[in-house]
Amino acid sequence: MWRKIKQELDSIRGKLIFFFLLSILFIGGVTWQCQKHLLFVSIKSEEEAYVSNLAGQIMVAMEDDRERCENFLHQSCYNKNLPLYLSTTYTDYEKVWESARNIDYFVKERMAMMPGIKAVQICHTNTTFCEDGKNLFYVTKDEMKECVWKKWIFTQKRFGIIQEEVNGMFQEEDAYIKLIFDLDYIFGNYLQENETFNGNYYIFDENWNYIAGTDTGYGPNIDASAYSGLEKNKVYRDQKRKLLITNATETSWNVIVEYPMSGYSSNKVRAGMAICAILIVYCLIAGIFLISYIQRVTGRIYRIGTNMEEIGSHRFKILDQMRGHDEISRLENQYNGMLKKLEQTIEEMTEIKTKRQSLEIKVLESQINPHFLYNTLGVMRWKALGAENDELCRMIDNMTTFYRLSLSKGQGLITVNNEVELIRAYIALQQYRYDDCVDYHIDVEDEALQILMPKMILQPLVENIYLHADIVLEGKRKIGIEIKKREERIYIKVRDNGNGMTEETLYNVNHNINLSEEHGIGISFIYSSLQVFYGEEGKMEFHSILGKGTCVEISFPTQTKWEASGTALGQNTGRAADESFIG
């Protein structure tokens, strides 16, 4: 019995049924756990949004009132008459009391303009002026220095104090105005017209000192440590099921809004019924779908397995094309594609075998023909020496060098030194042909001489210069070849001052497209060689200005792509694998 159960679980059908049962248990557990959170859906959608909006309104109103108080103090300190009253040196007692009456009138006027002000006190350092203990007070210079300007100070009697220096004082006299506000009157009446809100709000300063609130009996006794650690602009729920919303203003004052929560029982019933209904519907639909889907999936997989067994008997059977985009359909399509590629591969291998036999014959011929060519050139050189024709001897020597290095025993890589020797021999032959009409210069760094590179890379470029750049027509023309090694790359530049290329031709050679047989065989050969030995790391780029000349830049790594990857092919064709590989 246990063996059958294990076999069933090992099958796809058993796994699907097993995971279906697990999903039922998981969804049931998650939904029951989510029941608690669903109880707060209505609160989040209604009460939290309402209280959050109300907290924002309180914060904006508080900021406006605070700014209004501070601006009122600032305007009072810029009264143009106060400096005259407070800075004058008095000798006449009647002028003193006249100035005091004017200041008393100023104070009454300011208090009438700003409800909520408990007192306006003007403190000065003028020893010739008076103090009345109500509005006017005398302070020393040292006391002036200890004052804090434009900062709210809160007293235990529920008053807020701000003070600022009087502007425009003269004769080295100083003065400041102190405004004393009733905090509950200024900041505690924001909810008088809101009849639907049955909570409270409290305002604290940046040090969590109580300023004002709706509950004047409870507010001053609040333990600030209970709120100081709360994150700003976030909703909290305490043990008494209240919503706590904190907001921080730009002036670092804090607003706490408390609001009682309700509506638990009805939400609990609705959540329980919804959870049960969801589970029942899910089980029915998922069970029906699972049974039908298991039959379909296992049948299609069994058919693929049967056809794959027939491949071993060399019977290739293409599956019927299935409509669909699921994983099984992709597997069927890939299976059909694999069979087609397998048939194509067999055909290609047969064709490759035929070509390989033909290539082996050509290789044998190429090994015979160079010997005949070298022997013939040797006889020609011997005849030239007999006729004492030194120039012809040099031509034969250059031709022998050129063909020896270009054939290089059929190998694809030669050293940079041999490639330079090959191109020198080729240019020397061209110089005989065109009567030394071209100046050439070859500059090779010593570090690059023993690096391997694809052979016959430079010759097609130099040949194109002679054939297509009109390099031999007018005056002395120049060809420059520069080879450098930088870090782990070889950089080659081939320059000429011929007639250059048109923009269309330059685009074609840089993209290896639309090249004529006359112009493009050599360039395509170079692109192919770089691609074969170096892949994307082998690069060639043409730069040309019509009428001024052309510069070709070639770069490639010091190691072929096989050497860099350490593959078996690299071991057979790499730098040190076979000394006979170096031409």
Automatic annotation (TrEMBL):
Keywords: Coiled coil, Kinase, Membrane, Phosphoprotein, Transferase, Transmembrane, Transmembrane helix, Two-component regulatory system. Residues 295-347 form the HAMP domain. It is found in: Membrane. Residues 457-560 form the Histidine kinase domain. It is an enzyme of class 2 (transferase). SUPFAM superfamilies: ATPase domain of HSP90 chaperone/DNA topoisomerase II/histidine kinase. Its EC number is 2.7.13.3. Residues 328-362 form a coiled coil. This is histidine kinase. It comes from Eisenbergiella tayi. The chain crosses the membrane at residues 12-32, 271-294.
